[in-house]
Known about the structure:
It is a single chain. The protein has 400 residues and is of the alpha/beta class. The chain has helices at 3-12, 28-37, 82-95, 101-110, 121-126, 147-159, 200-217, 236-242, 262-281, and strands at 44-51, 57-63, 68-74, 111-116, 163-169, 174-176, 185-188, 224-226, 246-252, 298-300, 302-314, 317-332, 337-348, 354-360, 365-366, 380-384, 387-393, 396-399. 27% of the residues lie in helices and 30% in strands. The relative contact order is 0.12. Zinc ion binds at residues 77, 80, 168.
Amino acid sequence: MKKELLNNLFESYHNYTAYDIRSDFIKHNEVKVKLENLAGNNLFEIKQIGTSVERREIYSLKLGKGKTKIFVWTQMHGDEPTATAAFFDLLNFFSSNDSFNELRKSILDNLEVHFVPMVNPDGAERYQRENAFNIDLNRDALRLEADESKLLWNYAEKLKPEFGFNMHDQNSYYTAGRTNNPASISLLTPPMDYVKSINYTREKSMQIIIKIREALEQFIPNQIARYSDDFELRAFGDNFTRFGISTILIESGFYRDDYNKDFVRKLNFTALISAFESIVESDYQKKFYAEYFAIPENNKLLFDLLLRNLTLEFNHRKFVVDIGINITKKLNRGKNEFYHEACIADIGDLSIFYGINEMNMNGYTIENHNELKIDEPANFKIAQNGITKYEIINGLLKSL
Ligand SMILES: [Zn+2]
């Protein structure tokens, strides 16, 4: 996409944001009500394609009358809603009438885009990755045991799209390369076999990824990563690639201070429109696929809080340790609100890692180190010269 058009689009995003939809938590009923309200809009063809195991409706939405078929599905992991939110922004974009009419028209005339938003509504309801009977739908592409997996597979099999966009969220601990830059967006062309062969299908998705990176790089410099391409025979992306669909996995990660994921949602919106435009223009074909491998790897190198060089006293001896703490967002279903749970993620030499927040604790001693265990709650005290100076309460550092 031409730079000026892309910048204008990015700057105009607020005109299309569906502000009534949160970026970090969406309930099935919100999807249902919003899609039902769109029923009279002749731009979109909305269908119920089936129900989840717990009988929640799963929908498809089609837009455009073009030849090239595109399939976008979101939230097959229930606690990964960012792209579902961006989906509603996209609908606002396509229903608008403004200076982007030419872009809109070229997409609608040349593409037929099919969305299946919120593939896993039962998981979304619980804010959990898995479905209602606790299986990961993205490891069910072979057995197709869950109703949701069957719907997703059947839809793709019938549609036979040229391109597939597999929309996910990843946690905040990934970086772009061996740096402390969070991987705000990670991209992957899922492999088709264990030796990661590259055929025409994969080559095309690599070219699209190069274009998406080109579009986003200016907004999030050095914060785009290449997701691990280890083959997973049970995953949808890998099987769709085998089936001949050029599949692009987009993972929404962490952007500094963007705890509600509003900014990465905007990046999702921008990534999809720029990819659609590139498919319309066929300009992705000019990209050399191997440029894909120049994207830095997605590495798990971050903790929410990293305390470096603490002193640990054990058997009257002193040792130097770092402590990495991670804070997980969990849903209290009864109250319908989030709470945070902090755990010790690692103890020892963590010098190869980084913290979203970090502190050098040289000269400070852990008071109650016997209670510190990996995967256990992060609550402890830190002293200097025998006087307690800091307290870690549920992962938050409080100075006393
Ligand atoms: Zn996921």
